[in-house]
Amino acid sequence: MKNLKYIVLSIIMLSATIGCVEDEMMTKDEPIVEGSVLKLNEIMSKDVNDAPDWIEVYNSGTTDMDISGYFLNDKATVGGYEIPSGTIISAGGFYLVDADESGESISSGGEDVGLFEPDGTIVDHTVTPDMSSNVGLTWAREIDGAGEWKISSPTPNSSNGSVANTAPFLDASSITEYTDVYAVSASDADGISSVKLVLIIGESVQSLDMALVDGEYKTSVPKANVGELVQYYVVATDNTGLKSYYPSNGTNEPAEFLVVGGLSELNFEGEIDGNRGNVTFTATPLYPEQVDELRLYYLLPGEQQDEDNGFDDKTKIVMTQNGDSWEAVVPALNIEGEVHYYIRVEYVDGTKTYYPMEEDGGDFNHDLGTTWPSYTVEAITYNDVVDTTITSTEGPLTSLTFPTNPTPGSDINLVLAYTSSEEITEARVYFAVGDEPEYIKANKVSGEDDATFTQTGVTINLKDVVTDGDELSLSETGAKVSFYVRISTDTAEYYYSNTGAMSLDDTPGGGTVDESDDFKDDPTLWNVYTVQ
Length: 532
Hints:
Blueprint: H1 2-17, E1 38-44, E2 54-59, E3 65-66, E4 71-73, E5 81-82, E6 88-89, E7 94-98, H2 99-102, E8 112-116, E9 122-127, E10 138-143, E11 146-152, E12 169-171, E13 181-187, E14 192-201, E15 204-209, E16 211-213, E17 216-220, E18 229-238, E19 243-246, E20 255-258, E21 263-270, E22 279-285, E23 291-299, E24 305-306, E25 311-312, E26 315-318, E27 320-322, E28 325-330, E29 337-347, E30 352-355, E31 374-377, E32 389-391, E33 397-401, E34 412-418, E35 424-433, E36 443-446, E37 452-453, E38 457-462, E39 480-489, E40 493-497, E41 500-503, H3 517-520, E42 527-530
Antiparallel strand pairs: 1-2, 1-10, 2-7, 3-6, 4-5, 4-8, 8-9, 10-11, 12-13, 13-17, 14-15, 14-18, 16-17, 18-19, 18-20, 21-22, 22-28, 23-26, 23-29, 24-25, 27-28, 29-30, 29-31, 32-33, 33-34, 34-38, 35-36, 35-39, 37-38, 39-40, 39-42, 40-41
């Protein structure tokens, strides 16, 4: 003990000369109590299963001692945990307190630990070593209250001399087919000789040496084939030849898992906001070299999948391979709602795996669409027309009103109000969809088919649809819709646009019918709105 005293005092004096802060260190005025019967005896700084650290004090005397007000600290200075009033440590007995009670958590990388009298006099002191690779072991005196400190098997509240040679501590968890690097903790007071992972696949047995890396024993786990049953166990051997196993009876009852495959990653991305355009799925399966086919199944809004009750609306797409990933596209939609989907992976051995995983007790059932994951196709909104209301003093039309944000997929009602002494023979709306310079051919809705004439007005239904499958739908983001109105009477035709009304008689060159084509062929003169 004298040697320890001199070493501590020498360190303190040297620290003072290089400017260390005095109140953070013991000083020469704080001597270690000579001949004290109280000793730090054993310290746990890295227990198994994250159990709390603990400090043990030993009374080597022949009488009981009241240690009320003594301090235990994870520093070499007075302070830390004050032992509660009324605490008695019996002769030849032990006092142990864990970090949950004391708050003194000992760093597994090594730390000072001190025992102090109530007046601040240091009674005992030690520095724990790095215990990060010695999980479950303690820093303990070889003999209670005396002797050298060493790494030891734990003996909380009992004699250090009572410790027997035991098998290694082994802390391990299960392996799954998704485990790439497997890590366990193993330690022993006599040192670890080896840690091995034993894999059993069919008739094949592999014994893999696990290397100590950052305090854990680690190894890469070879990938098995889909459909194979993998059995395994871990064995840790100490330098005396004693062994520990995971599972505890691993040689006779190894742990196991079935390789079922599936997806390691799934992404989907819409080409436009709100998923109204094409939605591309990219699936990366486990064991791509063993894959035979990937399929994407989906249900559009309003469709159902429940074959037991007569519903089988799902659409199937065989996905296209691109390297180690497979892709498929759900076509653009013009309606809002949820699209439900799942992925099926089929391997060359015939094994079928689903995303999400279909397991006992899970929610997903590939035969029941309500259990499938989904993405939302958002509602479509439209910008207002340049002039939401057209007014004119020419011809029979007095106003035309375009509704704000019509409901996608439904009729868009253009309401025309007119007064005329002439008989209105026809009212039409012409519209085109697209961007300059190419406009889709004009579609029309005529009064003969879709308009209801009254003496005061007419409602014309502009369908939210384009007949040519290659053309841009009115429901797609960015669609530019241009339109104009034509009203025919017994004597004239009138064209209404965002520039006002123009009758045939007003057209350049004498008002011939052919010259009205200059207006018809220039959609920049028409009313315009765009889809958001």
